[in-house]
Design brief:
There is one protein chain. It contains twelve helices and 15 strands. It is globular, with a radius of gyration of 19 Å. Helix 5 (88-109) packs parallel to helix 6. It has 318 residues and is of the alpha/beta class. The chain has helices spanning 14-25, 42-46, 58-67, 81-86, 88-109, 142-161, 187-197, 216-228, 249-257, 271-278, 287-293, 301-316, and strands at 4-7, 30-34, 50-52, 72-75, 112-114, 117-118, 129-131, 165-170, 172-174, 201-203, 211-215, 238-241, 245-247, 265-267, 283-284. Strands 1, 2, 3, 4, 5, 6, 8 and 12 form an eight-stranded parallel sheet that branches. Strands 9-11-13 form a three-stranded mixed sheet. The chain folds into two domains: 4-171 and 216-241, 3-Layer(aba) Sandwich (Rossmann fold), CATH 3.40.50.720; 173-212 and 244-282 and 298-316, UDP-galactose 4-epimerase, domain 1.
């Protein structure tokens, strides 16, 4: 049985990924790594082991890896796009210096490593529609630069040292559990909360701006499925395009109005978020992921909307 260490277990993806891994592999086999001030709470704390895991402190990581005989690491430590632009040095320290620490420990202790990349790894010069798996990546944000570096470093440690590194390029992730945390695509989470509360939503992204999005259950399954995939099939390793749905603000608004007819939305465009959004793909080509490890999403915009509204109503309107 695998012994898994989730670094960044209390973050936007990590909190749900940790619980899904525990459901699949057993509570005691999945360690929730956290930093001071972001301790696990509730079910995340009660259901399994937890350890301090600051990626900038390799001795702390090493202690947890040895204590729990870890053989797989999900490294989710990072600042999201908008936050990273305001704190570029910290974004690099966590995203890249932290990754180097994890890769060195993985080499020493024979661990596999999943470190997600993002649609933010692309730039204005990248083909925006059906963005190829292998294409130009010249991002203009520190978030994007760090994600390209993540892909390259991970590939380097695989080819140079044989470390089993794997990653996907996550699109915007929409969750009915975890609140937004400072990402460019977070409007597509916020909008459901406003709809359920019966409030008018002010959209920070311009009408017509397409971005790849994905419902959290599909994102979790993608990460775990790739880590479980037969390595002999993997032509690529780090930075698999994965896609599920692509929409602009009007499309998600209209999808919600089908079920919340009185819902209202207005625009007040945030220049920083808009400039970041315009540098990202409209829609990625995920044919390599489908061919190499049988990737396939389960949700589209309508089925996600039905589930989001149902889950949020159950929680917010008690």
């Amino acid at each position: 049985m695998k012994k898994i260490f989730v670094v960044g277990s209390t973050g936007q993806i990590g909190s749900e990924l940790t619980m899904e891994l525990r459901r699949r592999y057993g509570n005691d086999n999945v360690v929730a790594g956290y930093i001071p001030g972001a301790e696990p709470k509730g079910e995340l704390f009660e259901s399994g082991p937890a350890e301090l895991a600051d990626v900038t402190k390799p001795e702390q990581l090493a202690e947890a890896i040895k204590k729990h005989n870890i053989d797989a690491i999900y490294n989710l430590a990072a600042l999201l796009s908008v936050v990273a632009e305001k704190k570029p040095l910290l974004a690099w320290k966590i995203g890249i210096d932290g990754l180097l620490n994890i890769l060195e420990l993985a080499k020493e202790h024979n661990c596999s490593v999943f470190t997600p990349s993002s649609i933010g790894s692309f730039g204005l010069n990248t083909p925006h529609f059906m963005t190829p798996q292998d294409t130009i990546q010249r991002p203009k944000t520190i978030y994007g630069v760090s994600k390209v570096t993540t892909e390259l470093l991970s590939d380097y440690y695989h080819s140079k040292y044989g470390v089993d590194t794997r990653s996907v390029r996550f699109p915007g992730i929409i969750s009915n559990v975890t609140p937004p945390g400072g990402g460019t695509t977070d409007y597509a989470v916020d909008i459901y909360y406003y709809a359920v509360r019966g409030e008018k939503f002010t959209c920070p992204i311009k009408k017509g701006t397409l971005m790849d999005m994905m419902y959290m259950p599909d994102a979790l399954n993608a990460a775990i499925s790739l880590m479980e995939a037969n390595p002999d099939r993997l032509v690529h390793r780090n930075g698999f395009n994965i896609a599920s749905m692509s929409f602009d603000p009007e499309e998600i608004y209209n999808a919600i109005k089908k079920y919340v007819p009185d819902f209202e939305m207005v625009y007040d465009v945030d220049p920083l978020k808009q400039s970041i959004a315009e540098s990202w793909p409209d829609k990625m080509d995920d044919s390599c992921a489908r061919a190499e490890w049988d990737w396939k999403p389960s949700y589209d915009l309508d089925s996600m909307t039905v589930d989001m509204l149902e889950k949020l109503r159950a929680r917010l309107l008690k």
